[in-house]
Amino acid sequence: MDLDSLSCAKKLAATHKGKAQILRVIDYSTGKWIEAAKARFLIGSKLKVGTGMDKKSVAAFASPEAAEKARAEHGGDLSDLAGAMAAAAR
Questions:
Q1: What is the pLDDT of residue 89?
Q2: Strand partners, 58
Q3: Per-residue CA distances from 41 to 20, 30, 81 (Å)
Q4: Residue 27 CB-half CA count within 13 A
Q5: What is the per-residue pLDDT for 52?
Q6: pLDDT of residue 48
Q7: What is the structure's pLDDT at 79?
Q8: pLDDT averaged over 10-residue windows placed end to end, the chain, 90 residues
Q9: Which of 8, 28, 51, 83 is the most buried (most CB within 10 A)?
Q10: What is the Cα–Cα distance from 74 to 24, expressed in whole angstroms?
Q11: What's the N-to-C CA distance of the chain in angstroms?
Q12: CB 77 within 8 A of CB 65
């Protein structure tokens, strides 16, 4: 399923518990859809991302190196999917 915010994804996952789901997100570096479970997330950076539905900026990266480079340039914290979903809802 393709969603434009992790806070929406968290709500959807709660209502479909136990059903198989594949969540995809957009790689900030390439603009391509990637599996969220394989992504690295940059949370709370100065990057402009998404639709503003998440309470904090959350950018996804397919490459750990690209995520670290963005963190060094724009601040924020790196996380996996579980941490990113928790941060998006806070």
A1: 64
A2: 43
A3: 22, 14, 7
A4: 17
A5: 57
A6: 75
A7: 95
A8: 58 64 86 92 82 70 96 94 78
A9: 28
A10: 23
A11: 22
A12: no
